[in-house]
Specification:
Layout: E1 8-11, H1 16-32, E2 36-42, H2 51-82, E3 88-96, H3 97-104, E4 110-113, H4 120-126, H5 129-136, E5 141-143, E6 156-159, H6 164-180, E7 184-190, H7 201-225, E8 231-237, H8 240-246, E9 253-258, H9 263-269, H10 272-279, E10 284-288
Parallel strand pairs: 1-2, 1-4, 2-3, 4-5, 6-7, 6-9, 7-8, 9-10
Antiparallel strand pairs: 5-10
Helix pairs in contact: 1-2, 3-5, 6-7, 8-10
């Protein structure tokens, strides 16, 4: 978010979840002093169309085109009810949502989506706009969920594994926390499958201490940049996704890096980001390390 100075962008599709996501995105935009841009774009039924599914696709696109002004007005009205002075713009597109939002991410501060819940079966069969955008976006992407379309003083929990995408997540968490006036809880998990660690308590303690030192070193560099952000470092054994979930009970958002794999690969490989998208009850911010694409 630090390198992007544009609007907070939120995608809507007429669902109650998307409407709540728009209200949450508006709260973030208001806190950042940024405008809000509400987008409606096409969501189809996928590729490999038969004659029947092509007809279904055409009907869906016709319905979406007809209802787009209604969806955008409903979202704008809901946002202005909460933040009457917020600068809000809207746009409707006849292109796919993932393509539109990915392009907008070049200038946006944040992309927010609040569509259907993500599960392994739906990603395998239909794909996911959230995953498609997160895999290619140039700014953080938030998959909004929960029942509170507002901000709070609760901390942000971030998974920090030392990878480039983990570093991007940690930087985004600090930048966001600084702007929202909240603290950061940085979580690093290390594998108990390290050779010999399971049987040697001294080795386990040494490995844990080494991971903590690495995490503190990472966070210290960011504290120097954001001195107003309080940070708590947590190092634990086990899987990364579960470690973040275990530490998120009193948080308001989870932040995690994504390596930018496609939706199918993420499903098959069981990535941390996909696990959190499936199981987190909080909004999940997905951060990708900048690449040359």
């Amino acid at each position: 978010m630090a390198e992007h100075t544009g609007a907070v962008v939120v995608g809507v599709n007429g669902s109650e979840r998307a409407l709540a996501a728009a209200r949450w995105a508006a709260a973030v935009a208001d806190r950042l002093g940024a405008p809000l841009h509400i987008v409606h774009a096409m969501v189809g039924v996928g590729g490999g169309l038969t004659e029947v599914t092509a007809a279904i696709q055409a009907a869906i696109m016709s319905y979406q085109a007809d209802t787009s002004p209604i969806f955008l007005k409903d979202a704008t009205d809901a946002v202005h009810a909460d933040f009457p002075d917020l600068t809000v713009s809207t746009s409707s597109h006849d292109e796919s949502a993932d393509r539109v939002l990915t392009e907008m991410s070049r200038e946006a501060r944040l992309i927010v989506l609040g569509g259907k819940e993500i599960n392994a079966a739906s990603v395998l069969l239909l794909g996911s706009t959230t995953l498609a955008v997160a895999a290619h976006a140039h700014c953080p992407v938030v998959s909004w969920r929960g029942d509170q379309p507002t901000l709070s003083d609760r901390p942000l929990v971030v998974g920090a594994d030392g990878s480039p995408s983990g570093a991007a997540a940690l930087a985004a968490a600090f930048d966001t926390a600084d702007r929202l006036g909240v603290s950061v809880r940085a979580v690093r998990a290390w594998s108990t499958r390290t050779p010999g660690a399971g049987a040697d308590e001294d080795l386990r303690e040494s490995l844990s201490s080494a991971q903590r030192a690495l995490l503190i070193d990472e966070t210290d560099r960011l504290v120097a940049r954001y001195p107003g952000v309080a940070v708590e470092c947590v190092v634990t054994e086990g899987g990364a996704a579960q470690a973040v979930l275990d530490q998120s009970g009193d948080a308001q958002m989870v932040v995690v890096g994504t390596r930018g794999r496609n939706a199918l690969a993420s499903t098959l490989l069981g990535s941390t980001s996909l696990n959190l998208l499936q199981h987190s009850a909080l909004p999940v911010m997905l951060c990708r390390a900048e690449q040359g694409d």
